[in-house]
Amino acid sequence: MTELALELRDVRKSFGRSEIIRGANLQVPKGERFAIIGPNGAGKSTLFNLISGRFPLTSGDVLLNGESTLGLRPFEINRRGLSRSFQITNIFHRLSVYENLRCAVLWSLGYKYSFWHRLGGLKDAAERAEAVLEQIGLKRRRDVSAGLLTYAEQRALEIGITIAGGADVILLDEPTAGMSRSESDAAVELIRKVTVGKTLLMVEHDMSVVFGLADKIAVVVYGEVIACDTPTNIRANQKVQEAYLGGHAPVEA
Ligand SMILES: Nc1ncnc2c1ncn2[C@@H]1O[C@H](COP(=O)(O)OP(=O)(O)OP(=O)(O)O)[C@@H](O)[C@H]1O
């Protein structure tokens, strides 16, 4: 049987009287790259917030590596091996690129920022931060304040921060939003490289990124996963074509 990294079982979420997530089910096998697509307001970011523990579920269950995460706080879910990035960049602008990464490593190890100064010599964290720096291609920019990086570099750093703790399950929220075609092609390569052997779940609107990167695509419409399949099958799926008004299935640019 396939081992699942992540499983959503009849997940529901209401805000006040509106039910936004309406019985979502999803199975993400270990080591696969999944894209979540769907119209604006379908509930994709809300699903991410439920999976990462930012919002409590109204009902249903989320399993990470076979274990329920119900009632766990975001940092506890993070310590169990799930790390997420945000649509809005989540970096410390006044710290250098390297310091941002070291901070992310230390945080994942359970250290609070207030202990920072006493941990400067922690060899493992420093080595890990250097390795991630290399992986994301920002070695040249090591000592630059993160706030001075270009937008694309900041998004790469953000991916570095997300993977720095060594989580096996990575959630990326619109990793190429606001990028030019060439920047987004480079981001796809970076994401592919840093997620080798890991499980990836990403929300993405850019169909060339989705079709270029995803093993499977989950389509969310009105808070339900209406289809989850390979890119080829999703393109041919009648229900998906109908959900994308006008009867056109999502296609690459
Ligand atoms: N904290 C909240 N309180 C109330 N309503 C919310 C909250 N968060 C999200 N919603 C509502 O839930 C619905 C789904 O929003 P969500 O951001 O998850 O959609 P999305 O699929 O990610 O959209 P987009 O593609 O535009 O980013 C929207 O109608 C939104 O207004």
Automatic annotation (TrEMBL):
Q: Which GO terms describe its molecular function?
A: ATP binding; ATP hydrolysis activity
Alphabetical keyword list: ATP-binding, Cell membrane, Membrane, Nucleotide-binding, Transport
- Asked whether the keyword ATP-binding is assigned, the reply is yes
Q: Name one GO cellular component term.
A: plasma membrane
Positions of the ABC transporter domain: 6-247
Any Pfam family: BCA_ABC_TP_C
The molecule here is called Amino acid/amide ABC transporter ATP-binding protein 1, HAAT family
Which organism encodes this protein? Noviherbaspirillum humi
